[in-house]
Amino acid sequence: MEQNIDHLLKVASELTITIKQVEATSTLLDEGATVPFISRYRKEVTGSLDEVQIAAIRDRMEQLRELDKRRESILKSIRDQEKLTPELEARIMAAETMAALEDIYLPYKPKRRTRATIAREKGLEPLAERIFQQENFDVTAEAANYISEEKEVKDEAEALAGARDIMAEWMNENAEARAAMRQLFEKKGVFKSRVMMGKEEEGQKFKDYFEWDEAIEKAPSHRILAMRRGESEMVLMLSAQPEEEAALAKLEDMFVKGNNAAAEQVRLAAKDSYKRLLKLSMETEVRLSSKKRADEEAIRVFADNLRQLLLSSPLGQKTVLALDPGFRTGCKLVVLDKQGKLLHNETVYPHTGQHKAQEAGQNVKYLVDKFNVEALAIGNGTASRETETFVNNLNLPKTVQVVMVNESGASIYSASDVAREEFPDQDVTVRGAVSIGRRLMDPLAELVKIDPKSIGVGQYQHDVDQSALKHTLDDVVMSCVNAVGVEVNTASKQLLTYVSGLGPALAQNIVEYRNQNGPFRTRTELKKVARLGDKAFEQAAGFLRIRDAKNPLDASAVHPESYPIVEQMAKDLGVTVQDLIKNDELRKKIELKKYVTDTVGLPTLKDIVSELAKPGRDPRETFEAFSFTEGVNEMRDLRTGMKLPGIVTNITAFGAFVDIGVHQDGLVHVSHLSDRFISNPHDAVKVGQKVEVTVLEVDENRKRISLSMKSDPAAAKPAGGGGARKGDARKEKEAEPMNDFQAKLAQLKGRFK
Q1: What is the pLDDT of residues 317-327, one digit of tens each?
Q2: CB 369: neighbour CB atoms within 10 A?
Q3: Residue 643 class from Cβ within 10 Å (0-12 exposed, 13-18 middle, 19+ buried)?
């Protein structure tokens, strides 16, 4: 695709990079290259841009191209009306935003029959034009000239009313007026939220918004989304406007030019234009723009959380016994081999009487011994702490790690088409337990099978633009999968789907080829897969690993296109490629400048040598065991001042949720995340991080726990209660409107902008 020089210049300026970088990146994207591929293997072409910059170029170029499509459509429409002048065309071509473009087009846009249309049909436009000039003349006498029984203008008042309708529409369709009014709404507008009559009890979770005013410009994402949710649930009435007097004054300043009878008619028209036309239009726009801003922030928070969760430390390839806990219905137990294959399943009943508990204990000990189990995974839902206690009392070998696993979304997976395809002969309980065990072994490989919105690390994810959310989350998943790399001979279809250049169809074809022909022996063999052509191979090969391949580079992130370079390096030193990988001293002897060409520069060469030092090594952190405080299993066990270990499960704009092992996540308010000032919670913690917290407050009735990570929690205690409701651990944990923190948040709202 031919690049638009204006687009390139604009994007380069906005991102503070060179036009050459934008052009090269945009060309690669248009040719079908993926963001991970460009970032990892085309550094010389892009000037070493990272994934964030490349994705920003992609998204901004798409926006500008959409703007151009709309521009062409508008030009065609006005041209067909035979109203396109050189001046108008120049204004349309100069418009830089969709809003500015639509403002210019508004007077020419086909519209339904309006009050102004009816007035024109009555022949009142010349009267409107005369009045709009605001010269000093007898307005009533002039209006009398337009009285007509035939045109249904019965008196002067009706003639003047029609003229005002026409002038009101002119003001509404004036691009400069709309731009000024839009700015007023954005800069001086206020959200006013009020409870609907009779909804006080039903809408208690929105209590803080029953009588709430807040500047639109400063309102944080979570409060905008909370108010809008309250409105959609018919609990709140919400408006988004500036003070009416300020808006009317702005409009009058633009259009009222005198102090006579004609000017008074223009003033009345301005008032009508604002109240009947502009106010509704501008409020709609500012609600949409503030929603978009709120969506972007919520999606960013979700994306950051998801990235951290997907890149959680894997236990690795170990034989795992997984338990999905339950009381009356028992605990579903599965045993998985080192590759995650289901070896055994049954149900044990450790919580339904002493006899059943002994029997369950004997079964678990027998299975641990029989299958040489190396780790035991326990889902963190109902009966999890009781099951953990049961397991810890079995005196299993000390080599067997007992780990609590976050099971959010496991039930979603167990009932999905993916799970049915994997385990057609097993019920949902077995599939859920398998998911828990596999999450411990490799969180990334298992979580890609679940819709990210069901994983439980979002903030109002069902309220934001779903298309934008999916687009961003897909980017995150693809980035994580390709950063870690994928073992092609063991990866699931779902994991392969996210590999650069593949997608669902090619992923399925790879699995089918593998099933029919056995494991891949070389990367080159991938070209034998149906429909996997040269382009797909180029995009995918560097991210696919083949363990124990004949060519050691096939297990690394070195791209096949660079194999000749590595082979030449080895040849020049008189050694093998395997020698280069094993021997650090040999790698130090490589003179990189010798291998620079027109297409391969130092960035790629440095990446190659770095990869030779750790071929195929997992970039994720090493797994560390974690355990909750013994004896603290329920909210009633908590006491103010207790210091407890916990795991961060979700991060929002107002703080972080921490699992402390009592079936209810507590909230560490942003003011309690650190001894130093923190405006962005992601600067203090990450999802999956092990932390120590102090209990500030416990409200069992409302299921709220307030926590602190400060060294001196009393130094900045939030005003009132604790966290949001968690609900079933398998359901998403999504932050509800914060009932007790809003007073504090109002004082600190600048922190959340």
Answers
A1: 999 999 999 99
A2: 11
A3: exposed
Confidence at residue 121, expressed as pLDDT on a 0 to 100 scale:
96
Concatenated DSSP letters of 156-220? HHHHHHHHHHHHHHHHHT-HHHHHHHHHHHHHH-EEEEEEPTT-TTTTGGGGGGTEEEEETTT--
CATH code at 35?
A: 1.10.10.650
Give the model's pLDDT for residue 316: 93
Are 244 and 387 in a shared domain? no
Residue given tokens 């090619």 in the structure block = 506
Tokens standing for residue 394: 């079995």
Bridge partners of residue 22, in order along the sequence: none
Output phi, psi for 323, to 5 deg: -120, 125
- Contact criterion met (CB below 8 Å) for 214 and 224: no
Same domain for 180 and 262, yes or no, is yes
Shared domain for 129 and 90, answered yes or no, is no
Alpha-carbon span 114 to 407, nearest angstrom: 57
Residues paired with 322 in a beta bridge:
334, 377
DSSP string over 516-536: HH-S--SSGGGGGSTT--HHH
Q: What gap in Å lies between CA 686 and CA 308, rounded to an integer?
A: 6
pLDDT at 204: 92
Could you tell me how far CA 244 lies from the centroid of its own chain? 36
Contacts for 289 with CB less than 8 Å, ≥ 6 apart: 186
pLDDT for res 715 = 61
Give the chain's domain count.
Answer: 4
252, 340: one domain:
no
Name the residue type at position 157.
Answer: A
Residue 460 pLDDT: 82
| 3-state helix vs strand vs coil in the chain, percent to 5 | 55, 10, 35
* Nearest residue to 622 via CA among 690, 540, 554: 690
User: In the beta sheet, which residues pair with residue 240?
Assistant: 191
What is the pTM for the complete model shown? 0.87
The per-residue pLDDT for 132 is: 98
Domain of residue 734, residue span: 635-752
DSSP letter for each residue of 390-444: HHHTT---TTSEEEEE--TTHHHHHTSHHHHHH-TTS-HHHHHHHHHHHHHH-HH
Q: What is the domain-level CATH number for residue 162?
A: 1.10.3500.10
The mean pLDDT of the chain is 92
Is the CB of residue 36 less than 8 Å from the CB of residue 543? yes
| Furthest C-alpha separation in the chain | 106
In the chain, which residues have pLDDT < 70? Answer: 715-753
Is residue 153 assigned to a domain? yes
pLDDT at 452: 86
